[in-house]
Design brief:
Largest sheet: 8 strands, mixed
Number of helices: 7
Strand content: 25-35%
CATH architecture of the largest domain: 3-Layer(aba) Sandwich
Structural class: alpha/beta
CATH class of the largest domain: Alpha Beta
Mean pLDDT: 94
Length: 377
């Protein structure tokens, strides 16, 4: 086998990374994107490793019996969806299998089965998309490229967003240089566009409102009557605002937190625009020097870090949560392996894993949101 060689392959599985899986007679695994179990395909080898190879799909020779025709005309060229050709029930099974495999690989056992929250709405669910444009082209980048794949619609974007694409394209055509535009349907239903600004310029918000509500309701069911909640990496307090409305004291800490609390924020919700670990250190210093009152009673931490997890800051954050008498942690993750790694490290420090849940915020993609409740006496 060599790079550039074209092979006929029978796809026997789909990896949680998104690609179909084939096995050669010699036992080498070959990953082929945009395929599914049951396909027979022609594929060209693009990369060789010691035990596996990557290939690009050339042609579907025999489609799997349940293979679907993708709705999107640029599926396979756009860098967004990976699984429009796979029935949604199968997509969810693949995602859940990946969560269970990751937990098993870290030898994590839970008292009950993982609670499952697949998506009810699998099309037009995204309330925010980011596009790139230049002259007559408006669309997404191709995978691993800055080439623009022009679109006339996006089947996973909110219908209001799709309705605005022609107007956005007309405005972008007036710009002399290539541009980036973010289009968002805000929580109040208003449509906003942000030109050449940073990601989530209107404030971070989960892109799937329906699934986000399921996650928030799940968190509410887990927490006991703690009086203080530390929402770490909390953005705009998406996961903790309702607790503040119920009278809990909530500290929302994030570099992207609002500089001042929005007018509709409950009075018990405080925003702190800061890195999490430095903020925890400074707050402890202020308490020790009597500039702030000492924490009273038990408290809860909601931890929703970026895709890389807590990383090198894990020990520093956990040590300081002890000072604040945190006895419950809700750990939320958007990348399964790093989320599992953080849970394993918590369990090594005598935190008990009570429940785990999985939520599909991103149908037709490989991504899945997961959450765990851990306690310690």
């Amino acid at each position: 086998m060599k790079v550039g060689e074209t092979l006929q392959l029978a796809i026997s599985d789909v990896a949680r990374g998104g690609s179909g899986v084939a096995k050669t007679a010699g036992g080498r695994t070959i990953f082929v994107p945009y395929t599914m179990t049951g396909d027979v395909v022609s594929a060209r080898i693009t990369e060789l490793k010691k035990t596996f190879a990557n290939a690009e799909l050339i042609e579907i020779l025999e489609p799997a019996p349940n293979r679907l025709q993708p709705r999107c005309p640029v599926f396979g060229r756009c860098g967004g969806c990976q699984w429009q050709h796979i029935p949604y029930t199968t997509q969810w099974q693949i995602k859940m299998s990946g969560v269970r495999q990751s937990l098993k690989a870290s030898q994590i056992k839970i008292r009950a089965a993982v609670e499952e929250y697949p998506a009810d709405q699998i099309w037009n669910y995204r309330n925010r998309i980011q596009l790139h444009g230049h002259k007559d082209s408006l669309g997404y980048y191709a995978p691993r490229s800055h080439d623009i794949v022009a679109i006339g619609r996006c089947d996973i974007a909110h219908t209001q967003i799709n309705g605005a694409l022609d107007d956005v394209k007309r405005q972008g055509k007036q710009l002399a240089k290539p541009y980036k535009v973010e289009i968002e349907v805000a929580a109040d239903g208003e449509l906003h566009t942000y030109w050449n600004e940073q990601h989530a310029a209107g404030g971070f918000r989960q892109v799937n409102d329906e699934q986000n509500l399921k996650l928030k309701q799940w968190i509410q069911r887990q927490l006991t009557s703690q009086q203080t909640i530390y929402d770490l990496y909390g953005g705009s307090a998406n996961l903790s605002r309702e607790f503040a409305a119920q009278g809990f004291k909530v500290h929302c800490v994030d570099l992207s937190a609002p500089e001042t609390a929005p007018q509709d924020s409950p009075p018990s919700l405080e925003f702190h625009r800061a890195d999490v670990l430095p903020w925890l250190k400074q707050r402890i210093t202020d308490i020790k020097f009597k500039r702030l009152p000492e924490p009273s009673g038990k408290s809860t931490a909601i931890i929703d870090p970026p895709r890389g997890g807590l990383g090198d800051e894990f020990d520093g954050i956990l040590e300081r949560l002890d000072f604040f008498k945190v006895t419950e942690i809700i750990a939320v993750g958007c990348k399964t392996d790093t989320w599992v790694r953080d849970i394993a490290r918590l369990m090594e420090r005598n935190w008990k894993l009570q429940k785990v849940a999985a939520f599909d915020f991103f149908p037709h993609t490989v991504h899945i949101e997961t959450a765990a409740c851990l306690t310690r006496t």
